[in-house]
Amino acid sequence: MLTLSTVHVHCTIKGYSTVMNRREFIGTAASLAAFGSSVSLSAERLESEKHESALDVIFSVQRHFFPKGLATMPDADTFNAARYTKEALEHKSFDPDIRAILFEGAKRLQGMAGESISKLTYKKRERLLRKFEEDRFGSYWLSQVMNLTLEALLSDPIYGGNVDETGWRSFGLKPGLPRPKKRYCGV
Amino acid sequence: MYDVAVIGSGAAGGAVAYLLADAGLKTALVEKGPWMKRGDFSKDEIAYCRRDIVTPNLFEEYHVIEELSEGRWVQRPTYETGWSFWNGNIVGGSSNLMSGMFHRMHPDDFRLLERYGPIEGANIVDWPISYEELEPYYDRVEELVGISGTFREHPLEPPRKRKKFPQPATRENRITELFDISCRRRGLTPLVTPRAILSERRGGRNGCYYSNFCGSYGCSSGAKGSSREAFIEPALKTGNLTLIDNTFVKRLVTSSKRSVGYADAVDSRSGREVKIRAKLFVVAAQAHESVRLLFNSANSHYPDGLANSSGELGKNLIFSAGGWGEADLDRKSLSKEMFDAMMEPGLFVNRSILDWYRLKEGGRSLKGALVEFMFGHQNFIRRAAMSKYSKDGKLLWGEELEKVLRYRFTQSKRIRFEVFNDWLPTDECRITIDPTRKDRFGMPVGKLRVNSHPYDLKLARKVAQKAEAVLKEMGARNIVTSVSSTPPQNLIAGGCRFGDDPSKSVLNRHCQSHDIPNLFVADASFMPTGGSVPYTWTIYANALRVAEYIKKEFSCISARS
């Protein structure tokens, strides 16, 4: 079949391990009830006001992860992390539990900040995120936002990120061929 | 009515269907997933490696995994953890996505008990057949699948009729020069790993084009010897094969105590129920799913599951695993010339070490392990995500992340080894069904209790240390090794042991049910022990052996059923 290395790809990169149980987070996050069952969370509801504000928090964090002025890497707006993220979350293949955790985490982070995260100074935002990271849930949430942002940076531009292949070009990466003609194999 | 219905189109199902269709039997090949053809594949990391696109959505179809945690068994449905036990649910199964590192089992592997003696807590039995009986089929697979390689003599290499592989080895990265020198310095013999990948065009299949993204992806040139390319496509040309894709078999229904009459199936897209009638059935849905199907087919004749008069169904689940290690090769490790050559994308490492397949300890022989060497997977997102933490566990971002990614992508490559030793069969590694949890088709899901024998971990650690020494000899840095009882979900076998005693095995030596003559199980579930190599070559070879028997005995079996 596949080799152990492909196992490793599937187990570690999706952020999964046999130890990590995402439902532990969901079970303790009472406010997730506001989103209904995580399984039934539908893509259309991303348009709701509540989700728009959560997405704004995620986008602000992505901009902090990939700020302007780096020597090699493009900033989050240049490779369009926001568009990638929104469209990835809307697709039915995106894990509904992780989606629910992303929204819950955004709400908690916003609560910790007390004001719009995008309006904080870089230093204040840095302190806020490092503080958030000290909590197990916060650490997991930041890791998931980073995974999404790395996907936006390094996936095929067909998915809406990696605009003009800026992510690949910044590291001299050559994509495998053939490249996809349709997102998610047309599913 | 078909002559034969084969359930599952992976390595075993495809090989059986090919041989039977080629022999003129009207054969149905039933596959739960869709038929993706060569031209449909791409190197799309999102689709193939980060989402469940070629496997079912875990919220609709899942397994329950039972693991030992702090001394007690904890059950978790895979939709809670994301640890999917699906492996490529498309025509050709997970063979489409394999890396194709092919090894024959050693003659010792067929006689593990006789050769090395019992181990407390392990249910080791010898195979009812010998290496010599399987060897002609290993040889046939070389030809039919098109295995490439360079044969080098080695005292632990399984005997083979011909010294040359049908195709020359695939092209290699120059780092193999350093690997070979390093091995020899340590008194080891580096071997070229045979690959189920064509190095040259053959028939309708093109040679490898070194895309840099092989394992986890479908092959766009046809070079990879998947069940689809090597067996199903040729079988369709006979006119005797009907490929029924997007169809999930829920249960097998018996027409009498000694005969399966039809498969109760459902179109996985429309939900339309279908019955597939045949004179003979071959189950090859991958070990854990084949076992689940037999449990879910329980009836008044067989209340504990079809083919389960022995009570052995689902027991002695095994995996092909041991441990792994990775390290960095970079400018500090290598000369400029070697570094530049190493960074060339696409070419393979193709190296393995057999020297540790048999070990000595206190004057007695121990069964050891094969170690495979390769570059770490080239997936961009994966590599970046693996690098996102600092040594003290803080998430990196901004300039710090940029620095790490620059090193990862432009200044280094990961060299990796994988240890394959026996996963000893035990009472604590098995498959049952969970009657309280059902999939979207209303069928009870498979429950896998997974655990390894302490001996396996001890042996894997011992061999991993030896493999680490090779990486150090190469000058590799930042070595990380992992040995654990967490199984790889894709290299899975056992659960339908074959054997000569009907009270202790599910299948006879032909992989035919002891209870029901027109029912065979051809995937890796037949294996009582798994050897210390990845299974795929053995699965292909055994499937051809089983199909040869069916071909010879078909008239007789079908007349009685």
Topology:
The complex is a heterodimer of chains A (187) and B (561).
Chain A: H1 4-13, H2 22-28, H3 49-65, H4 81-90, H5 96-113, H6 122-133, H7 136-154, H8 166-170
Helix pairs in contact in A: 2-5, 3-4, 3-5, 4-7, 5-7
Chain B: E1 2-7, H1 11-22, E2 27-30, H2 45-50, E3 64-69, E4 72-77, H3 78-81, H4 112-116, H5 131-146, H6 175-185, E5 190-192, H7 227-236, E6 241-244, E7 247-256, E8 259-267, E9 273-283, H8 287-296, E10 318-319, E11 321-330, H9 336-342, E12 351-353, E13 358-361, E14 364-367, E15 369-375, H10 380-386, H11 398-411, E16 412-421, E17 430-438, E18 444-449, H12 454-474, E19 477-482, E20 492-493, E21 519-521, H13 536-560
Parallel strand pairs in B: 1-2, 1-9, 2-6, 3-18, 9-21
Antiparallel strand pairs in B: 3-4, 5-12, 7-8, 8-9, 10-20, 11-16, 11-19, 12-15, 13-14, 15-16, 17-18
Helix pairs in contact in B: 1-7, 1-13, 5-13, 6-12
Explain this structure:
The complex is a heterodimer of chains A (187) and B (561). Chain A has a domain at 49-167. Helix content of chain A is 52%, strand content 0%. Chain A contains 8 helices and no strands. In chain A, helix 3 packs across helix 4 (81-90) and helix 4 packs across helix 7 (136-154). The longest helix of chain A is centred in the last third of the chain and has 19 residues, at 136-154. Residues 1-19 and 28-44 of chain A have low confidence and may be disordered. Chain B has 561 residues and is of the alpha+beta class. Chain B has 2 domains: 1-148 and 197-312 and 495-561, FAD/NAD(P)-binding domain; 168-193 and 321-422 and 453-486, Cholesterol Oxidase, domain 2. In chain B, strands 1, 2, 6, 7, 8, 9 and 21 form a 7-stranded mixed β-sheet that branches. A 6-stranded antiparallel β-sheet of chain B has the order 5-12-15-16-11-19. In chain B, strands 4-3-18-17 form a 4-stranded mixed β-sheet. The chains are: A mainly alpha (187), B alpha+beta (561). At the A-B interface, helix 1 and helix 7 of A face helix 2, helix 3, helix 10 and helix 11 of B.
